[in-house]
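User: I'm putting together notes for a lab meeting next week and I want to include a structural view of one of the chains we've been expressing. I don't have a solved structure, so I'd like a prediction I can at least talk through. The sequence is below, exactly as it appears in our construct file.
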Amino acid sequence: MPKKFTPLETIESQQKALMFLTGFIWVILAVFFIAFAVKEDAFALDPSLDPSFKYIRRVYPAGLKGVGRSTPLRLDKKASLSLSHYIMALFYYDLGELEKAVKEYEDALRLDNGVALVHLDFAVTLIKKNEISRAMDELNYTIKLDPEAIEPHAVLALLNLAQGKPGLAVKEYEAALKNSSKFNPNDPEVHFYLGALYSEGELKNNVLLEEEFKKAIALKPDYAEALNFLGYTYVENNKNLKVAEDLIKRALKVDPDNGAYIDSLGWLYYKRGRFKEAKETLEKAVSLMPDPVIFDHLGDVFFKIKDIKNAQANWQESLKLNPTQDDLKKKIEALKDK
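Assistant: Thanks for the context. Below is the predicted structure for the 338-residue chain, given as C-alpha cells.
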C-alpha cells in the first residue's frame, strides 16, 4: 500500500523555491545604493569588477539578457527606474506596508512590464492583501513571460486548491513539477512526486506513473517509497508481479517495519494465490499499522480461505475507520447471503 498524497501535501513538499522571500532584505541592502544612483543617462557596471553585479542578477534578470561575463551591464533609463521601484516595493513589503509596496510594483511595471520576477513578487504581495483574482492574473502573466518557471505554477496550485478547485490545482502542480524536472533532472523526489500525481484523479496515467518512478529509482536505488509505490501499482494492476515482489522486498530492506510496505507484500501474496503467506503478512502489517486498507485486504484473504466470520470482522473494522467505502459496504451486505 503506498502513501496517499493529497494535492496539498505534494504541493507543500515542493515549496522550497518559494523561500526566496526570506532573502529579500539581503538583496535590498546589497543593491539599495544602485537604485538611487540612477542618473538621467544610462549607466553601466562592469560585472568582472563590481561585486554588486551578482545581486543585480538576482533582482533584475531581464536586464542581463544576452549579457556575458565580461560584457558591461547596461540598463536604460526606464529599466533603471523600474529597478528602483522594484527594490522599494521589496523594502515596503518587508516592512509590512503593503499599499506602498503595491504602488511601487505598479510604477515598476509601468516602466518595464517584461520582467517575470517582478510580476511574481507582485502576485505574492497581492495574495498577502487577499486580492486573489488580481494575483492570479499576475501569476499567469509571469508564466507567459517565463513558460519554464516553477514558482507561479506552484502558487496557482495552492490558490486553486484554496478555492475548491482541486482539478485545476493538480494541473498547475503537474506543470510546476514538470518544469522542476527540467531544472533538476537528477532529483529523485521530483520524479517521485510527479509519479504520485499520476496515481489517481484526473491525471491518472499508469504509463507516466511507471516512467517517473523508474526515473526516481534509477537515481536513488534505495528509494523505499518509490520502490513500494511502483511495486504496489503493479500488484493492483496484476502486472509484473515478480518484478513487483522484488521492488517491495527492496523497500522492506530499507524499512523492514513499515506497515504499508508489509501490506504491499501481503497483498502481492494474495494476488498470487499464496493465501497462507498473505494472511501472516497482512496480520503483521495491521498490527503495525491499523489502517482501513489493510483491514480490507485481510478481510479479502479470510474470505478466500472461507473464514467468513473473520472476513466480516476485518471488513467491519475497515469500515469503522473509513465509513465512506461504498464497495466495502456491498461486500459486507453480500455476506448475508452466505
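A couple of points you could mention at the meeting. The two ends are 29 Å apart (CA to CA). The domain at 240-338 is CATH 1.25.40.10 (Serine Threonine Protein Phosphatase 5, Tetratricopeptide repeat).

User: Perfect, that's what I needed.
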